[in-house]
Predict the 3D structure of the following.
Amino acid sequence: MGYVDEVLEQVKAKNSDQPEFLQAVTEVLETLRPVVDANEELYRKEAVLERITEPDRAIHFRVPWVDDNGQVQVNRGYRVQYNNAIGPYKGGCRFHPSVNLSIIKFLGFEQIFKNSLTSLPMGGGKGGADFDPKGKSDREIMAFCQSFMTELYKYIGADTDVPAGDIGVGAREIGYLFGQYKKIRGVYEGVLTGKGLTYGGSLVRKQATGYGLCYITQELLKKNGTSFEGKTVVVSGSGNVATYAIEKATQLGGKVVTCSDSTGWIYDPDGIDVALLKDIKEVRRARLTEYAKERPSAEYHEGRGVWSIKCDVALPCATQNELLIDDAKTLVENGCQYVCEGANMPTTLDATEYLTSNGIQFIPGKASNAGGVATSGLEMSQNSERLSWSEEEVDAKLQSIMANIFKNIDSAAAKYGMEGNYIAGANIAGFEKVVDAMIAQGVC
Ligand code: NDP
């Protein structure tokens, strides 16, 4: 049995209760076969695959807090510090009822390669809690964040592990988390990214994942001799990534006609009104039903459905496993040509296989949504030198990082004879750098 298959079997046996984690490891290792085959003796001796699939540590902890009725609530918090071969652990925190060890490990594992692709010195980690911020008062959110940080602070630091936001963790939550860290540790340091602009945040961080997704999609379109101009774009989600992907795709000349949340979706043939969407989601924290009420051209539908709309470009920006095999068939049937992932692992393995074998050009999330963590890396640099860069400077750096990622994944795929396979290209380019660093640092 080959080395990849042996390790896949071991990982499956040890983690049989972690489907999302196994999905991510399978997807990565399958595409690494050519690199592993070319270096099998060395990689086996160094146990490279066993080491990279096992996190340095996975911490889980109790998060007790008091709700507005005086009732004590208990959630479970996590931090998985996956790999710090090329820099301090770096990766967001997710607050969502679905959070469990499998989801945090899948996200932390993917983060290793994503961070490596940015070319910045950041290792991989991820965290979160099974806490649902929906419907909670500001005081309850603060109580939860303070309790979460009261345990988390022991494991993080500006040079060890730098968390950020993810689903359910935006500017408000980062503010409360940072305040508690500062109070407990008594130090003012860049321990979190995604901070507010008045206390060490970076311009463009909020927009970075969605903008970065459009910048790399633009590179792909350019390679195919075209652009966003005149293209119909479908987007899922209506959170941080989706909102700024819609904004940038529109600015670049595309017409974005959908968005969604966990209860329903919008079809707006006139193009999504970004200002209205931001007001509903960022200011009023309301549901998408409000969008349809206030925008005569829009239809609201319950449930899922964005992938049924005819488009040229599809940008899944909500959550994992939201684009299924039947959606993939509909996209192909409708003539969609490009799928670039804004969310982490939004496309299931069989849907990805169907899209790519039917001629759709596909960029995986670890490359196409890396603009968020890249700009977090830029925030860390600004914090270290105690300076703030202008919007133009950060945006220019983001554009150049995304263009560079596209170049690297394109050439890594070509180097191993898989021209146009950006999934393999992203995994290979991310993996090679981390593995070189791991081997250079000895068995640790
Ligand atoms: P937000 O919490 O801001 O938004 C998430 C969006 O997805 C919301 O519209 C939410 O709807 C929807 N959603 C969440 N869970 C589900 C579900 N189970 N079914 C259907 N819809 C769902 O998160 P972000 O925009 O920050 O993150 C979106 C994705 O992008 C995630 O996969 C995240 O890991 C990834 N990502 C985020 C980065 C960032 O910088 N923020 C960086 C890189 C990746 P509702 O409001 O109803 O819950």
